Amino acid sequence: MTVPTTREQCAALDAADPLGPLRKEFTLPADAVYLDGNSLGVLPVRTPEVVRRTVEEEWGQGLITSWNAAGWTELPHTLGDRIAPLVGAAAGEVLVCDSVSVNLFKILTAALRMRPGRRTVLGERDTFPTDLYIAEGVTGLFDGARSVLLGSLDELDEQLAGGDVAVVLLSHVDYRTGVLLDMAEITERVHRAGALMVWDLCHSAGALPIDLTACQVDFAVGCTYKYLNAGPCAPGFLYAAPRHHAAVRQPLTGWFGHAEPFSFKPEYRPTEGIGQFLTSFPPLLALAGLRATLEIWEQVDLAQVRAKSLALTELFMGRCAQLGLEVVTPAEPERRGSQVALRHPDGFPVVQALIERGVIGDFRAPDLMRFGFTPLYTSYTDAWDAAEALREVLASGEWQAERFHRRGAVT
Amino acid sequence: MTVPTTREQCAALDAADPLGPLRKEFTLPADAVYLDGNSLGVLPVRTPEVVRRTVEEEWGQGLITSWNAAGWTELPHTLGDRIAPLVGAAAGEVLVCDSVSVNLFKILTAALRMRPGRRTVLGERDTFPTDLYIAEGVTGLFDGARSVLLGSLDELDEQLAGGDVAVVLLSHVDYRTGVLLDMAEITERVHRAGALMVWDLCHSAGALPIDLTACQVDFAVGCTYKYLNAGPCAPGFLYAAPRHHAAVRQPLTGWFGHAEPFSFKPEYRPTEGIGQFLTSFPPLLALAGLRATLEIWEQVDLAQVRAKSLALTELFMGRCAQLGLEVVTPAEPERRGSQVALRHPDGFPVVQALIERGVIGDFRAPDLMRFGFTPLYTSYTDAWDAAEALREVLASGEWQAERFHRRGAVT
Lengths: 411, 411
Prior knowledge:
The structure is a homodimer. Chain A is an alpha/beta fold. Chain A is globular, with a radius of gyration of 22 Å. Chain A has two domains: 7-31 and 301-405, Aspartate Aminotransferase, domain 1; 50-297, Type I PLP-dependent aspartate aminotransferase-like (Major domain) (Aspartate Aminotransferase, domain 2, 3-Layer(aba) Sandwich), CATH 3.40.640.10. In chain A, 36% of the residues lie in helices and 14% in strands. In chain A, helix 1 packs antiparallel against helix 12. Chains A and B meet through helix 2, helix 3, helix 5, helix 6 and helix 9 of A and helix 2, helix 3, helix 5, helix 6 and helix 9 of B. Chains A, B: InterPro entries: Kynureninase, PyrdxlP-dep_Trfase, PyrdxlP-dep_Trfase_major, PyrdxlP-dep_Trfase_small. Chains A, B: Pathway: Amino-acid degradation; L-kynurenine degradation; L-alanine and anthranilate from L-kynurenine: step 1/1; Cofactor biosynthesis; NAD(+) biosynthesis; quinolinate from L-kynurenine: step 2/3.
């Protein structure tokens, strides 16, 4: 696809966009370009009604009968099965429950137990911090275990060669730079060294095709509130390769992971399969948001998502480069997720000034401006207009106004 | 209060009930007596609008700005502060997050670390099983640690005398029998033996006054979806006595428990105070249910709740005893929670037959029929009518019909 050089060309691309009709499925802020769907996805139009039904009918009227009548009991599994095709997994391999952090805790603990002769959890220093904090929490529970952080992936082989690495935890797409890692190649390298591979899919699930099965990934975690649009802090999901289901032992052994939860026996006996990762039940009101948005995802071709994502980011990166900005996100499509990071020493006030102009991106310390492109609802003209607004903010110097320097927003 | 002996006397008590006006705050199933609020609390009338506002305005319109503009960032703390008076705690001592099971995992792990010379977690065999399963999960992470289950509290002193008990975990009110334990006396006994005391408040929070501070309790967990009516599987809460805040170290070290979450530093450093128990952020849609129902609780006098609860259960127990049923729940008010358990070898079909008559209780294997009394919306005539329905079900033998013997419901 040729990169458009005028707004008119962008409009023509929008008119021909096979994903274009999906835009009306989402509630977009008026007079704004929302480029923060990699932080919090927007509200699907159909969600309020699904939530209302869950609250007023399933809870309000159905009460405890909804456990069966409304299928509540099966939701961690059925919703997981509906996420599975988005990450290249089969039914029975994905479970919806808890948060990314809690799920990672289960998986890293299980992984250390699966490699009893090894005590190192290997991560990357620039990974989203909660992953590193959880790794620290897990290694603190095992004698001699430690969490080692790579300054760069160039150090991976050297660490693996030491023979002590039990498990490697990496983000598929870096939350700051938008760098996309080669899941197949890295997973294979980690396996060759006898370690297990855990991928954090928070910034790739729903943003690009993922094939956990083909890449022989051991475990993965992901969130549902960014590209998947399930609602603020909606429950996470976890994946465990079926070859590990029999041997795995996770420590958050709660009622709903029991083989016979209604036998009320005092001893724990895990159920078979992915269900053993279930600790307690996710809040039903939060699951309603996921139920709603997955109806949209069932209509989506991820190859189209990826093609549009790359076109949008290429367009935006090109325009930003022309402004003389340092583009941190890789130009090579195979190394790029679905966001663009720009480095600017005054990134914080620049982003605030952009927000005042209706272009909503965010800032990550110390100097990165982040713009997420969510192909289900971001248009080519959005990308064009965002770059134009950035040009005007920088040309006018308006970001230097005092009001743009005040901190406090969680973005 | 004299126990009423006619339905007319019950109606008179309802007319004079200081909590009576609160009944209209709740959506009650039509033509039914709901006595399962100890499993899932009913929908408050005000909740759908609070949820709608959260979905459509805070998420849909506000998007990321709602982290500050709608106070999202502070909700685990502000909602915890609003629960605090219900359990006899002060602001800064209660946090809303995760589930009961996950919170218990944090607390039991922290407790074992606080008593490094001791390796036993002591529980009661009849406690709600998820508590025991979590204790098993935690002790599996510590060399030499074990979970010991008391057949009865009579064995408590003997176990404590062994000197190896690090922490005792008990349910304030037993989920099956409705037995209420003496929090002050037991906590003191446990402390005298050098152990820490953790109370599970799932069946007492919102059912009766609790004074964690006066009882010098170390830690507590509770749920919000039973007597508190926050919605199915709504997030849990945890309490940590302020004297432990400085020394405690819990293992689920996530982003939101960090001292500077937005510094994105790779090393974990817990924030001070109760916030260090926060791992990730609870789903905002689920928190909406809690926000709504706490508006009601702010109008409630727990002494009135307790007085009415005891009157309701006494009335129901008396009527059931007249039917020749074995009442398992203690007659002594100081040993009784807010539910009534009846033993019947055919309890399952009897409960199903009652449900068909519009009296919704539940069944716990092998032979207990459970009826929860929730004074904010259960009336004296409800209690009377429920006992009448039970009399008719037993007198007619209608519970013997084949359709009442089919299993499957989660109640």
